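Inputs:
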Amino acid sequence: QSVLTQPPSVSAAPGQKVTISCSGSNSNIGNNYVSWYHQLPGTAPKLLIYDSNNRPSGIPDRFSGSKSGTSATLGITGLQTGDEADYYCGAWDSSLGAYVFGTGTKVTVL
Amino acid sequence: EVQLLESGGGLVQPGGSLRLSCAASGFTVSSHALTWVRQAPGKGLDWVSGITGRAGTPYYADSVRGRFTISRDNSKNTFYLQMNSLRAEDTAIYYCAKAIERGISNFDYWGQGTLVSVSS
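Outputs:
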């Protein structure tokens, strides 16, 4: 059972914005950086956001990350059909001495 | 160019063992944290194990501690996951990944995945 909670699904029309929440605790999000990954069907995950709000090279600025307290948020603006994927947050958990992933959110472009 | 190439997956009976390998190129394995993540069919990502960069300190998920061992061979630029006492619930695609830095977080490059099936 994951310690990071995400909504099962979010959806919006092309060009619109979606946000995905990731709720944790002081032992993970509250005191450690958050990463965000997306996974297209049948492929390996890909890093979208690191250190809570930084984008690796090649990731468009349509993707943004933020963190407040024990929660983090991924925002996607200008939604495209190619953004349909599963999205996961992740963070180190200092109490568990383990990395934890969120429950995952499926993004659907209407 | 950074690349990670997994091997070693397959079908094994409950209680059996497998060793997964992840051959790295384009970076030095000793300088970055390395990790194994699995995904059961139709399920989400499940972190299995990681090893820190430089010091090489291993960490494990509770579900595999005592059964799995992560290691790296700097001379071969390869890291491994030795899996013993395998159970049906270990069936999954196993991905290897590297971290941006020495800490176990921010996995920026991933392998293609290798399937492990535990069944009699």
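Remarks. The beta strands of chain A are 9-12, 18-23, 34-39, 46-49, 63-68, 71-76, 85-93, 98-101, 105-109. The interface with chain B takes residues 2, 32-33, 35, 37, 39, 44-47, 50-51, 56, 86, 88, 90-92, 96-104 of chain A (CB under 8 Å).
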